[in-house]
UniProtKB/TrEMBL annotation:
Pfam families: FtsX. It comes from the Bacteria. This is ABC transporter permease. It is found in: Cell membrane. InterPro entries: ABC3_permease_C, FtsX. Residues 175-286 form the ABC3 transporter permease C-terminal domain. Keywords: Cell membrane, Membrane, Transmembrane, Transmembrane helix. The keyword Cell membrane applies. The chain crosses the membrane at residues 23-52, 164-191, 227-247, 267-285. It is a multi-pass membrane protein.
């Protein structure tokens, strides 16, 4: 199949004779604008989910929940000793009390500075392997020396967030597929309308020896050009919106929202969308025209 992006003057007059801006171009611009936004959302969420998985994999928090301070300090030191000698543990650091009180300040108010307040001791732990067996081994070792210890696995309490991100990614992928299907439907309708409008011209072309494939090629060239021009315009507008939203996210100072960024691969995929939709429109137009010519002409 031969496809030329630059159509001749005769080709340009085949689908419509207006010298102004064609509606098809603006329709495709809107379709690609929405498609690129949906794709950017899906890719950004997918990247944030992958970053979250890397950050949380094998991370634990050990809390020593003991009301008596002397016992709490003793159990904390024993737990640290066990953790630092365990080969599956790569890092075990006690969280500073000042940092804990700062985190608790929104809930405790002025009471957070009370030295008699029994704040649990916390230990951040990184594991070499994020397996259930490694977590169970650490849990058993810590509780053997610190009965009041409670071990929280970061992956477990962040799983609802991870599930939500996965749902958003699937939803964005579904929207991209839906927009692709809608684009194909618009192209088919435009091609059939062009056939009906220029039915007499096509009959003359047939009498002059033109084949159905040659006639279909005229339509697909024109539709491919309209789709490509509109797609590039829509993509430029969508990229501007994505950059604006990304800049706004960086000003929030949130680690989770800050992960909603696009990498080089993501930008390449977004930039390829108008060309992919142009190919899709070309194929849809070709099949629509050949099918219609075979039935009616």
């Amino acid at each position: 199949m031969s496809v030329k992006v630059i159509a001749t003057a005769a080709d340009r007059r085949l689908l419509d004779e207006s010298r102004g801006t064609r509606a098809m171009t603006w329709i495709m611009a809107i379709m690609l604008f929405l498609t690129v936004l949906a794709a950017a959302l899906g890719l950004g969420t997918l990247g944030a989910a992958a970053l979250l998985d890397r950050q949380l994999a094998g991370r634990l928090t050990v809390q020593i929940v003991e009301a008596v301070e002397s016992k709490r300090l003793d159990q904390t030191q024993r737990a640290l000793a066990v953790l630092r000698t365990d080969p599956v543990v790569t890092r075990a650091v006690e969280v500073d009390r000042a940092k804990l009180t700062t985190l608790l300040r929104p809930w405790l108010g002025a009471d957070e500075a009370d030295p008699d307040l029994p704040i649990p001791a916390m230990i951040d732990v990184d594991l070499r392997a994020a397996s259930d067996a490694a977590v169970a081994r650490v849990r058993d070792g810590v509780r053997a020396v610190a009965p009041s210890a409670r071990i929280d696995r970061h992956e477990s309490w962040m799983s609802p967030v991870r599930s939500f991100m996965g749902m958003v990614t699937l939803l964005a992928a579904g929207l991209v597929l839906l927009m692709a299907a809608a684009t194909a439907a618009v192209v088919i309708l435009a091609a059939r309308a062009g056939l009906e409008t220029h039915r007499d011209t096509i009959e003359v072309l047939h009498m002059l020896g033109s084949t159905d494939v040659q006639v279909a090629r005229l339509f697909q060239r024109r539709i491919a050009l309209d789709t490509l021009i509109g797609g590039v315009l829509g993509t430029i507008g969508a990229v501007g919106v994505v950059l604006l939203v990304g800049w706004q996210l960086t000003t929030l100072g949130s680690d989770l929202l800050g992960g909603l960024s696009l990498g080089t691969r993501d930008w390449v995929l977004l930039g390829a969308l108008p060309f992919a939709f142009a190919v899709l429109a070309t194929l849809a137009a070709r099949q629509a025209v050949l099918g219609a010519l075979g039935r009616y002409l």
